[in-house]
Amino acid sequence: xxxxRQGERNSRWVDPFLGNSQSQLPHAEGVAATWWRxxxxxxxxxxxxxxxxxxxxxxxxxxxxxxxxxRYGVSLTGDPPPVVFERHEALGIxxxxxxxxxxxxxxxxxxxxxxxxxxGLEGLxxxxxxxxxxxxxGYYSARFEEKNVFCEVTCTQRSAVHRYEFPENVRGxxxxxxxxxxxxxxxxxxxxxxxxxxLEGPSSAEGMVVMEGIPIYFRIEVGGAARGxxxxxxxxxxxxxxxxxxxxHSAEKAPPFGVWFEAGSAGEPLEVRIxxxxxxxxxxxxxxxxxxxxxxxxxxxxxxxHWDVVLGKVEVGGGTEExxxxxxSAFYHxxxxxADFRNENPFSSQDGPFFFDLAxxxxxxxxxxxxxxxxxxxxGESFVEFLGEVATREGVFPVSYLMDNAPERFNKQAxxxxxxxxxxxxxxxxKADWDWILRLLWGTSLSKKVATGRFAEFAxxxxxxxxxxxxxxxxxxxxxxxxxxxxxxQGIYDHSLPLLRCWSNAMDENTGLLREDSxxxxxxxxxxxxRILHDMVGRIKLAGGEKSFVNLLDRFFGFQEPLHGETVHxxxxxxxxxxxxxxxxYHYAGRPDxxxxxxxxxxxxxxxxxxxGLPGNDDSGGLSSWLVWSxxxxxxxxxxxxxxxxxxxxxxxxxxxYGGDFVVQAKGAHEDNIYVQRAWLNGRALERSxxxxxxxxxxxxxxLEMGEKPSSWAKESRPPSFVx
Length: 724
Prior knowledge:
Layout lengths: L48 E2 L6 E5 L27 E2 L1 E4 L14 E7 L11 E9 L2 E6 L4 E7 L3 E7 L7 E5 L14 E8 L4 E8 L2 E10 L1 E8 L2 E3 L4 E4 L11 E7 L6 E8 L3 H11 L4 H16 L2 E4 L3 H14 L4 E2 L14 E2 L4 H4 L3 H8 L1 H18 L22 H11 L6 H13 L6 H9 L5 H21 L2 H10 L7 E2 L4 E2 L10 H4 L7 H7 L3 H12 L34 H15 L15 H11 L1 E3 L5 E4 L6 E6 L2 E8 L7 E7 L2 E2 L4 E3 L8 E7 L17
Parallel strand pairs: 27-31
Antiparallel strand pairs: 1-2, 2-4, 3-6, 4-5, 5-10, 6-7, 7-8, 8-9, 9-18, 10-17, 11-12, 11-16, 12-13, 13-18, 14-15, 14-17, 19-26, 20-21, 22-23, 24-25, 25-30, 26-27, 28-29, 28-31
Helix pairs in contact: 3-16, 5-6, 6-8, 7-10, 8-10, 10-11
């Protein structure tokens, strides 16, 4: 048993339990008290063991929504999540979890591993109270109360290592359910469509199960085991050493099955090591060879060190311990997904970059992906290549990508996000075969050969429903036009140029907002009306000018009351992502002070520490990455070469970029000093509230003088508008 927490640097600030439970946030005051919730007030995160962007994770499993961990049932509205399990309990340890998502169709939790202390398989399927839980990056442990079994688990990129410690008078067993998958609420189970398993002596087994169309290969090696066998429907299969579940069987009617292993003597611990692959058993063996005979303690130490390296890409100076815990826990959640399945593409025999758990890009493209591509351009190279592979194979760029083979990719949320993501990656200097990418973007969505879909409808009608997709498509065409211009594809540029101006067709000139004659996903027209567009001059002019635009924003955020007869759907307060960039629109009307008030209000009232420290679903890190950027005092504009300057909470932030550190010094930073008074970039006075992307690089220093009252700083400058 690990007595001390591993990780000596920034990982020591991370709390993996953050966001596991219903929100418990500071009492909101001022305008923050007027904001509303579109989604359940719960982060939907889990505390399980996982490496940065890890393919494999392992966590206690109760079958609850949405990660398999915890007590809650399905929750889709802004009401508190329903409690379906009266106590905090688990069946065992499961593998592969989502992080912070809502209802997204497939929920993993494979190879459920359960400790047993009774005769035979007695206790299989028994729910035990969890106590003595501990977790840090790369490690999770707990006690199964009724069985008095202590469990700890750690992970590598492609394997999980468990240890079970039994009472001294008990010869312990573990049973691994190969048919387990999904959740135990609202018919959200997954069932094996095909499978096979074979014992290889008393302490190992190897096989494969197909779950949601994806083959999950595994190799199991159990240290301390003296006997092993197969089981089906809760009973041991005496004398059998292999089992085949043929393709085409009735998946839901097939009895559960798996393997079991028993310790050699009473009180002896069992150590379960499982290597995973989506390709072959050989790759599972290779995954276990990485750890070889390393003890669990050493594997956990290396996982924590890996997290220290990743979290070391940003160093903060000063600030309270609470703020540091909030920041690095958010950074941790930002680096869990997308899960890196390099060389594990189940749809191709070709090695190369591959990812799952884009869940979904609608949540991730504004803040998380710009953060990852800024800190790890080499990661961006792999991600761009992966998106190109998907588009080549499927004929379309995804809006989400889960570990399944379902064709539906959440197209109701948004359209053309990969166009913005890829344009953003190119602007950030990510290396790729951009000619190939541009041809794919053209061929899958813009070419006249594409006769169906929203891109074709948009080209014909200059507008699509839902109207928020009209903004998506205009932004996508802006990104493609910029890429085509840089690469010299005049025909594509000429095609996209008129279409990128069509965002205004979705707007109501009388209100300055998106029209009401549309459905808006997890929000209302107000929540989608304040997107940072490539044509902010035109956007503000449509609203009646800067004063009218600021008044609209003020009513949206609660600084002003609604006009007579007006229904205002207020800011969602980072409970959800549709309006997450909206506070920063004040910059475009010369009011960075107002942006600071909203952003600091969000940080103060909508985030905290502890299991209830998130305002809503973390959505694979989409929510947490907003907090990372905003606490640093910066904000990216996805698809545009601009970084907005916000209100940093720390006196000093250092981003480790290629070429050196980018430093943000906030003189006088304090919870009351939220307004920038003056600014300097590399020693020169800066009278604007933004950086050009070309200025955001290693070796530069941004110095901000902070104060408790609004100033005249940057009120005469505006971030660039790229059309008007």
